[in-house]
Amino acid sequence: MLRFGSLEIAGPALLAPMSGITDRPFRRLIRRCNPSAVGLYTSEFISAEALWYNSQRSVLMMRSDPDEIPFAVQLFGRDLDRMVNAGEMAQKAGAQLVDINCGCPAPKVVKRGGGAALMREPEHFSQLVEAMVKALSVPVTVKLRAGWDENSINAVEFARRAEDAGASAVAVHPRTRRKPYSGDADWSLVARVAQAISLPVIGSGDITTAEQQKELFETSGCAAFMVGRGAIANPFVFRELAAARAGEQVPQAGKGERITLLAAYAELLAEDLPRRAHLGRLKNFANRMVSPWETPELRRRLLHCDSPERLLDEVRRTVETAA
Ligand SMILES: Cc1cc2nc3c(=O)[nH]c(=O)nc-3n(C[C@H](O)[C@H](O)[C@H](O)COP(=O)(O)O)c2cc1C
Question: Is 284 in the pocket of ligand 1 (CB under 6 A)?
């Protein structure tokens, strides 16, 4: 059985944290599409700074469902006291694991020393992990990038530091902050991290198929992996990967299933969010989900939809007429 510290992880395929995507409705959708096939659900990243000021929006982002097990909250920030406070709030809200974001490339995050900027401050990083581990009773993990840029690939050093500071697992998205999502993820770096520490290592980047899953287990030495964009493009991906691990065949989700899914997601969003926010999230998801049929024209039309109903109609029309 896979464990991160004291926490049992239900399987090696984990849902990657994605800002603007992995909110409670999306995680519900993923659960519905992939019963028992997701090892860990993680929130979007949440600002420790905002939680310090008790921002209700950020507090609500920590909500989870009783059957969402195990559930992790990911936090970003630099300040020790604020991160510890945020960790305590997450724990109180029901998080069974707290993850520290050390990979976000967004200027508004790194300008304040959080996200990927933590990978420029080794000593501070160690102190932060240590303080979080000491203060929290749930396991603490970190999610690293390869490093800040191509001249400072330091994920191995930071993974060792995380282990020394008491973290329970280390995730690595093997790209630098300067190349947020371009180029192939460098899985040989995940392998080097897995060799360097004895904690479970989680690889993150570009996994969407059973073949990739097989290759990464054979070559990287990682204990688990995350799926991010692959779960937006194909929300059934976890059940397909689980079937492949069990040596079974599972039919790929068809166009009709995906449209039904978008409608279900719209309903789940409506339960959780005010209509305006709901439409924004739906557009974000639809834009990514329609990638197999995407055209600049479709993107433009989706952007201009002024209601969830209209957006669903647009996607339905496009997908049904596509080859
Ligand atoms: C829209 C989007 C939002 C993301 N937000 C976060 C985040 O909040 N925290 C984080 O650690 N990584 C975030 N990531 C990075 C993913 O967790 C993942 O490491 C990366 O996308 C590579 O995996 P993939 O190829 O499976 O998508 C985000 C990625 C995307 C595409």
Answer: no
